Amino acid sequence: MSFWDFFEGLHTLFTQQWDTSLVRVLLIFVGFLLIYLGYRQTLEPLLMIPMGIGIVAVNAGVLYFEAKEAAAGNLFVAPLISDPIELMKYLQLDFLQPVYNFTFSNGLIACLVFMGIGAITDIDYLIAKPWMSMMLAAGAELGTIATLPIAVASGLTPKEAASVALVGGADGPVVLFGSIRLAPQIFVPLSVVAYVYLSLCYACYPYMIKGLVPKSKRGIKMDLKDIPKISPGEKFAFATIACGVLSLLFPMGAPLFASFFVGVAVKEARINRYVELLSGPVLYGSTFFLGFTLGALLSADIIMNSTVAKLLGLGMLALFLSGVGGLAAGMIWMKFSKKPFNPLVGIAGVSCVPTTAKVAQKCAFESNKLAMITPYAMGPNVAGVITTAILGSIYVGIVPEFFK
Question: What's the whole-model pTM score?
């Protein structure tokens, strides 16, 4: 027995190919960076801290299972296993394998997050101003639509292109749901890219807003008295009817629609124990395992996939175009609105609930201390969840049929 047998993580670092070892070191650094940025609240700590720890541990904890010549691996998760016999072995060997196979690969984790989001979402303004909310949300899907042909032109397959285009909706569960069905081979890096970029929305969108919208328009004050009161009964009826109609029209997205609207329904029905369950243990538990498992999936062999660089660039492009589309829709609505309208409401249509609505309010407040636009921004913010799920359903249902 040699010295290296006591420290297999170091041993594999020096015996693997140099490029693999280098990527492992870089990923460990990235993991520590995400942990630090999450701790400092620069990025979303709920996701970034468990994700960062997962990235650090999976790239540090590499070992040889058999002979020194055997392939190196880890004790976290093997996402590419499909053979039933091999899968049974890994379900008993890797501690996150059951979490991945029973919640990620079937879309359950995305649906659990949607349930929790529904239970904490206020849909008053969406119902009060449905036309405005849906139009702004549709404008904010520019990246989801425009990135698809761009991604195909860059060399991705249509299914891979549709998966990366969904990043433009800024809705992590939809990216998970769509990519695992369309392009499982890029599911892991794409999901990590999506969630890291969603955290960066809060840091980068304010600069986009300041660069594209004049200060005089950013500070437009909107009349809160213009928002009508919506009763719990009306919101409950809307949630149940919308769930049925959307599921009928877009059946591939029915699990996401059902998950989101059941959260809204129990909230408006005032079933407090269910609301506490969905908005607490379900939402935060699934968010924790989402971040931690995604981090553990990001090993060196995954990140060394040749398509990852394209995913990084296309994901950034999709979110940029969606932000531009939302602001453009807001500017157009402002021009034709008979009442004062702040165009920053448009960027809230990028459905990272409630981050983009908070970004819009923050930028408006910096320009005018009296500009309160959050209630208005929540309309397109919630509508964006619906439009992104609709596009995800369309992509999952149509792209495989058109490009067999």
Answer: 0.83
